[in-house]
Design goal:
about 325 residues, mainly alpha, Rossmann fold, Tyrosyl-Transfer RNA Synthetase, 2 domains, three-stranded parallel sheet, two-stranded parallel sheet, 11 helices, globular, binds adenosine-5'-triphosphate, binds magnesium ion
Length: about 325
């Protein structure tokens, strides 16, 4: 079963990304079937700064390695470095209807923000379909926000196969097993997000311990005064309990005060993040190494990607 997990190099990766996506990827990685992809082209669908994009692309790659992505078992790639992604993108645009792209919720939301709308914002779900189909991926771990895009990838694969002959594996969306949805500590009704306007409730993977301690100590709770799992009435406390359980791998004990709970959450987060931070600092000292790993990842996946594009070109009527 080939699996592809993608990360956009926008913003700072946070504890939700680690627990919901990076850790499942690390736990399940297997030689020949795992691909971790940095979607650097997707980060260009909105106004962007070239220097920041390059820096963030390397930062995400480095953080994935620091969190345990093993390049011997997982192909770590940046999709812009593999031209078959963009070549297949165009072929898939030829089986995607304008209306299908225009009704994507993310397109509607992001294009409503005002200012010029990049054409790539409209077509990026088709590029995402190409990212998946070009590698014959069977399974894609996706959060709810990506369901609609994954459905489009399935539609395009099925339509292409029906119209031009069996060419693509039709991928399946899977929920990451430890699908913990980590909520924002300052606004426990919203999930922790890279793109949230305020960073007050976000635990960045590279935040210094002092910042993390402060963020957790200021986490919004309630006036009930009892520590218990009650997502409806006590979302803040419930989120802290969930973070504690995810970080330690154990059910939390009994607590009589919010302060004691917050102290244990701080310790648990620090225990989880300290080695990642340390490894990150070592790796970041040698950006050449990270670039080599990306080149190795590209070499690993390229033969199969080339074969898929060749199949698609031939099926759709292009010359060799
Ligand atoms: P953005 O705000 O830019 O959409 P994000 O924080 O939602 O950023 P993504 O790059 O969209 O991060 O998602 C990367 C991976 O992390 C996805 O698999 C997604 O399901 C997972 N993920 C994102 N936020 C959380 C969260 N709060 N809890 C658990 N998993 C999360
Ligand atoms: Mg998201």
């Amino acid at each position: 079963m080939k699996r592809l997990t993608g990360f956009q190099p926008t913003g700072n990766l946070h504890l939700g990304n680690l627990l919901g996506a990076m850790r499942p990827l690390v736990q399940e990685q297997q030689e020949g079937t795992s691909i971790a992809m940095i979607a650097d082209l997707h980060a260009m669908t909105m106004e962007h700064d070239p220097q920041v994009l390059r820096r963030k692309t390397l930062e995400v790659a480095t953080l994935l390695l620091a969190a345990g992505v093993d390049p011997k078992r997982t192909a770590l790639i940046a999709h812009s470095q593999i031209p078959e992604h963009t070549e297949l993108h165009y072929l898939l645009e030829c089986v995607c209807h304008f209306g299908e792209a225009a009704r994507m919720i993310q397109f509607k939301e992001k294009s409503a923000a005002g200012g010029p709308v990049r054409l790539s914002l409209l077509s990026y779900p088709v590029l995402m379909a190409a990212d998946i189909l070009v590698h014959d991926v069977d399974q894609v771990p996706v959060g709810d926000d990506q369901n609609q895009h994954l459905e489009l990838a399935r539609t395009l694969a099925t339509r292409f196969n029906a119209r031009y002959g069996e060419t693509f594996v039709v991928p399946e969306g899977v929920r990451p097993e430890s699908a913990a949805r980590i909520m924002d500590l300052a606004d426990p009704a919203a999930k922790m997000s890279k793109s949230a306007r305020s960073s007050a409730g976000r635990i960045g993977l590279l935040d210094p311990p002092e910042t993390i301690r402060r963020t957790i100590s200021r986490a919004v709770t309630d006036t009930v005064g009892i520590v218990r799992h009650d997502p409806e009435h006590q979302p803040g406390v419930t989120n802290l309990l969930a973070i504690l359980a995810e970080c330690t791998g154990e059910a939390p004990g009994a607590y009589t005060s919010y302060g004691a709970l917050k102290r244990d959450v701080t310790d648990a987060v620090e225990t989880l993040l300290a080695p990642i931070r340390k490894r990150y600092a070592e790796l970041a000292d040698d950006p050449g190494y990270v670039r080599e790993i990306l080149a190795e990842g590209k070499a690993l996946v390229r033969p199969a990607a080339l074969a898929t594009v060749r199949r698609a070109r031939s099926a759709i009527g292009l010359l060799d």
